[in-house]
Amino acid sequence: MSDAQPGDIRPPRKIAIAARQKGKTKAGLDAPVLLMLGLLAGAYVAFGGLFAMTALAGTSDVMPHGPAQVLAGVVFALGLILVLLGGAELFTGNTLLVVAWAEGRARFAPILWALLLAYVANFVGSVGIAWLAHQAGLHQAGDGAVGAAALATATRKVGLDFWPALASGILANMLVCLAVWLAFGARSAADKVLVIIPPIAAFVAMGFEHSVANMSLIPFGWMVQGAEGPIDLASFLGNLVPVTLGNIIGGAGIGLAYWFAYLRPQAEADGNRTHHPG
Asked: What does the pLDDT read at residue 160?
């Protein structure tokens, strides 16, 4: 009998089993449902990003870089909290579907299709919220401090070269997928919130790159910038492509590592029992 209390996190192997089952379910979602939930996920992450820009507004004059970034990371966690507790489909977190594929619970083609639909829907939801926030005048808040923070953030992002953006994308989604992974093991809403915040705050504080977050942060900064400036379609895609590739590598790497550690040995043992000549 387990001595775990109701509020304790599940042990690692049970988290892996939950991730495997979740991946199988997600790979089987109908396209209209996946698109709707993807739109919501893009919107939720955009809310987190805009919240972070609001928190950063004006901090350059009164707060050192480190504490300001940690503050932005803590409030940005709102996005993933809404995704996981509200129920939505986020491309970056869904790279963990690789666990279901590795276990043979879902075929590669449906997983790839689910990821593609989530990515497109996340993009539409993210850009839509960025546009609405600009129309609402969020960039003018704090005598323009929110807009200045958003423009500075977007400009830094589009200025990254391919390799730094790729590496940063790998690191970001390792932390995002660790937050998702730990949330699989949480037994209550409060537990989920508590395990989500630290990894998300860490990736934002260290300035790593998250493709879905950038789908709202860069367009919002672009709208603030206006017609003239470093942000344009080419620079936006120049960030989004390597960051997306990095996110895939980082998230799939976390999923495959835990599959190898906690599910592969059991699968091999089951196979040996099944095919034992005796």
From this structure: 97
